[in-house]
């Protein structure tokens, strides 16, 4: 983990409210592993002290790219960054995705700019597979050509039917899965909304496959000190939780997404119903 000054090389609109910020930072870029993130201090936000976490989209020996959406004060300020501006960068942070194995058949699933967390994984994989990306509409379908250029098959789905299959990305995934043999050594890697991640986990577990999920929580420090981004996970040695066998009080523990995550295998996660989540919010 490093704190360094990065120089803005470009900051261009990708589609709609989505932009890609390219930073020169050799010390961070060389160390980034797929699924890791950086904590960026956005300049000119004098009333804000917290950094913003962003998955690393692309990286080489000298530069790294961050795909972001202008949805709040911080990201709107990021959109004003110009080539030559300097920003403070903390990273790379977190536990990323495990490497894709040569004998596996990888399936990537993303919701919107969840694609950003998956590109490095796909680029560095020894084998190619299938990518499923979903969004509310066509403008939320990102990076399709980037994945196709490196040899991956891309399947798109939109809730309004404006691009690809009409419906949720998991519906498109279901259609594809019905055509696959249960003997295939599928392995899932996903990033997106929690509901989508839970749906991917359900499908992986029903087929006896692994699913590596990148979770998203509001982060404060990014280094595990503030405990703002915690997730319930199975305690070591705990039995498998099922509807007929609910978790006992000591079956779970808190994990910090910024340090123990953001990537977890789906069987590690203690999934809770929405009512329970609302009570704890």
Briefly say what this structure is.
This protein is an alpha/beta fold and 281 residues long.
Plain-language structure description:
- It is a single chain.
- The protein has 7 helices and 16 strands.
- The protein is α/β, with parallel strands linked by helices.
- The chain has 2 domains: 2-93, Elongation Factor Tu (Ef-tu), domain 3, CATH 2.40.30; 105-216, Rossmann fold, CATH 3.40.50.80.
- It has a 7-stranded antiparallel β-sheet.
- Strand 8 (105-111), helix 3 and strand 9 form a beta-alpha-beta unit.
- The radius of gyration is 19 Å and the shape is globular.
- Residues 239-244 and 275-281 have low confidence and may be disordered.
List keywords for this structure.
single chain, 281 residues, alpha/beta, Elongation Factor Tu (Ef-tu), domain 3, Rossmann fold, 7-stranded mixed beta sheet, 7 helices, 19% helix, globular
How would the blueprint of this fold be written?
Layout: E1 2-15, E2 18-24, H1 26-29, E3 37-41, E4 52-55, E5 58-59, E6 63-69, H2 73-78, E7 86-93, E8 105-111, H3 119-124, E9 130-135, H4 144-149, E10 153-158, E11 165-166, H5 169-177, E12 186-191, H6 194-207, E13 210-214, E14 230-234, E15 252-256, E16 263-265, H7 274-280
Parallel strand pairs: 8-9, 8-12, 9-10, 10-11, 12-13
Antiparallel strand pairs: 1-2, 1-7, 2-6, 3-4, 3-7, 5-6, 13-16, 14-15
Going by CATH, the architecture of the largest domain would be: 3-Layer(aba) Sandwich
Specify the CATH class of the largest domain.
Alpha Beta
Q: What is the approximate shape?
A: globular
Number of helices: 7
Assigned CATH superfamily of the largest domain: Nucleotide-binding domain of ferredoxin-NADP reductase (FNR) module
Main β sheet profile: 7 strands, antiparallel
- Spell out the helices and strands N to C: EEHEEEEHEEHEHEEHEHEEEEH
Structural class: alpha/beta
Q: Could you report the average pLDDT, rounded to the nearest whole number?
A: 89
How many DSSP-defined strands? 16
Number of structural units classed as domains: 2
End-to-end Cα distance: 31 Å
Oligomer: single chain
Strand content: 25-35%
